[in-house]
Design goal:
The chain is mainly beta. It contains 2 helices and 22 strands. The strands form 6 sheets. The chain has a 4-stranded antiparallel β-sheet, with no helix packed on it. Strand 20 and strand 21 form a beta hairpin. The radius of gyration is 25 Å and the shape is globular. About 25% of the residues are buried.
Length: about 280
């Protein structure tokens, strides 16, 4: 009798497994009404188009033909290194959470910066990966939300936005790449749309972006030592303008940026810091 009951149970489980594999059933938290059943075979057929791996470029090595990329071989995107064209990738970070951004240290390339949160909470923390040892150093406080990290051209400091002061306003901070305890607030800001765009070649000034909306952004200039800031792209008419991607010219005397001022599309423009006039 027990053997017969056992046989019935096995057959029942096999039937259920076949039924479950025969069609795609929505998750319990979804209510599906009037939607035809989706055969499992159809899902298998389209799987080759929906299940694929991508790799995103992250950073060029400053001295060698090497790059950092982000790709996923498990559940999350991690940082990998590619040492030559067509070469195999080497995974460098192994976290359960996705790693966002990766940027070689200017000059030497002996380390790189990356951002990572926990559980998708978007309270990103800034880390430095050391190639010589494989050690990873936390550079921020571990609690606030930190964004837009930028190396100085000298590779000694990192500027970034942080909510450390109020939990909401994104202030501008600078930290030494080798000393997390050196972190200090450079400029106190209001609102959450602030980010660092670039360092001046001499390491004395920062370009900041204040994002109001997709159609309205402003570029500011900030002094690293004093925190004094100046608006470079004031609003001059009723129409909003989106200025973005601000970068210092190589000589530090001007700024390149994109702008949709007097245009339907974003265009590359240049501002001479001497007269602060924009020209295409």
């Amino acid at each position: 009798m027990k053997r017969f009951s056992h046989l019935v149970a096995v057959l029942l489980l096999s039937t259920l497994a076949f039924a479950q594999s025969d069609e795609i059933v929505p998750n319990e938290n979804l209510v599906a009404e009037g939607i035809p059943k989706i055969p499992a075979k159809l899902a298998e057929t389209v799987g080759r188009y929906s299940e694929f791996r991508t790799a995103g470029f992250a950073s060029w090595h400053p001295n060698r033909r090497e790059m950092l990329i982000e790709t996923r071989f498990g559940d999350t995107y991690q940082v990998h290194e590619v040492k030559f064209p067509g070469g195999a990738r080497t995974q460098l970070t192994f976290f359960p959470d996705r790693v966002a951004t990766a940027d070689y240290r200017p000059g030497t390339g002996d380390s790189f910066l990356f951002l990572k949160d926990v559980g998708g909470g978007e309270f990103f923390q800034l880390y430095r990966y050391d190639f010589a040892t494989g050690d990873i150093t936390l550079l921020t406080d571990g609690k606030s939300r930190n964004t837009s990290p930028r190396w100085s051209d000298q590779g000694d400091r990192i500027a970034y936005g942080s909510t450390q002061r109020t939990g909401n306003d994104v202030d501008i901070w600078v930290v030494s790449a080798s000393d997390p305890a050196s972190a200090r607030m450079v400029a106190q800001m209001e609102g959450g749309g602030w980010g660092v765009s670039d360092w001046s070649p001499d390491g004395k000034q920062l370009l900041l972006i204040n994002e109001i909306s997709a159609a309205e952004n402003y570029v500011w200039l900030a002094d690293v030592a004093s925190g004094k800031k100046e608006l470079l792209t004031p609003k001059t008419g009723p129409e909003t303008v989106a200025h973005a991607n601000a970068r210092f010219a190589k000589d530090g005397n001007g700024v390149y940026m994109t702008s949709d001022e007097d245009s339907e599309f974003q265009r590359l423009v240049y501002m001479d810091l001497g007269n602060q006039r924009l020209r295409c």
